[in-house]
Design brief:
The protein is an alpha/beta fold and 222 residues long. It has 8 helices and 7 strands. The protein has a 7-stranded mixed sheet with strand order 6-5-4-1-3-2-7, with helices on both faces. The longest helix has 12 residues. The two termini are 15 Å apart. The structure holds guanosine-5'-triphosphate and magnesium ion. Guanosine-5'-triphosphate binds next to helix 1. Belongs to the small GTPase superfamily. Rab family. InterPro entries: P-loop_NTPase, Rab, Small_GTP-bd, Small_GTPase. Pfam families: Ras.
Length: 222
């Protein structure tokens, strides 16, 4: 199923001035149950499931984002937080130009453990990677919070990471997160000079079919 919307300022079908489709791999990392799958599901389908279904191994999804100046295909690798799948993860980190390290703002241990996830990314990619630290579940409110926004920001600053808080449940900041990631992608003109304030630079248009398993994902041309 795909949804099409008109994009102002771009050539129509067969237009010669469309930039070639650039593909980027993004890997989602973080402890079990922090909300990696929920963030991706909110972004892809704009819905939320409150029942927990642990990711088994790695899931693959892809989505085309039409930015003002170019089109990008995001390939999203949703890893499992469960310990027993850890050995699978390094090869996906190695292949990715963006790592999204998620923690749950109501779970201090998940925040502490982001250091380990960041170390794993640095071990595979050095500085040749964009890392975004994401505090999820902000909808739970201040009484449930174990990690303040300031703590998250401080850690991100110290470790040279991008930072964002969001709620997959409420849909808060999820689109903004992907918009922010898109502007930080290697090769993005916005990476060097930021877009004009207030400019909307993202329109989500096409959602590809989701391969049922990894083998299919690796075979597909997306
Ligand atoms: N309140 C609240 N609950 C959330 C939010 N995001 C996810 N959850 C819930 O947290 C649980 C775990 O979410 P998942 O998205 O499956 O977490 P995960 O990080 O993919 O977990 P693994 O696949 O095991 O690594 C589920 O019950 C979700 O409904 C959120 O923003 N707010
Ligand atoms: Mg999951």
């Amino acid at each position: 199923m795909s949804e099409e919307r008109k994009i102002p300022g771009r050539a129509g079908a067969g237009g010669a001035n469309l930039a070639p489709l650039a593909k980027y791999k993004l890997v989602f990392l973080g402890d079990q149950s922090v909300g990696k799958t929920s963030i991706i599901t909110r972004f892809m389908y704009d819905n939320f499931d409150r029942h927990y279904q642990a990711t088994i191994g790695i899931d693959f999804l892809s989505k085309t984002m039409y930015l003002e100046d170019r089109t990008v295909r995001l390939q999203l690798w949703d890893t499992a937080g469960q310990e027993r799948f850890r050995s699978l993860i390094p090869s996906y980190i190695r292949d990715s130009s963006v790592a999204v390290v998620v923690y749950d703002v109501s779970n201090k241990a998940s925040f502490t453990n982001t250091s380990k996830w960041v170390e794993d990314v640095r071990a595979e990619r050095g500085n040749d990677v964009v890392i975004c630290l994401v505090g999820n579940k902000t909808d739970l409110g201040n009484d449930k919070r174990q990690v303040s926004t300031e703590e998250g920001e401080e850690k991100a600053k110290k470790d040279g990471l991008m930072f964002m808080e969001c709620s997959a449940k409420a849909g808060y900041n999820v689109k903004s997160l992907f918009r922010k990631l898109a502007t930080a992608l290697p090769g993005s003109p916005d990476n060097a000079s930021k877009a004009a304030p207030g400019a909307s630079n993202t329109i989500d248009i096409k959602v590809s079919a989701t391969p049922a398993n990894l083998d299919e994902a690796n075979k597909c041309g997306c």
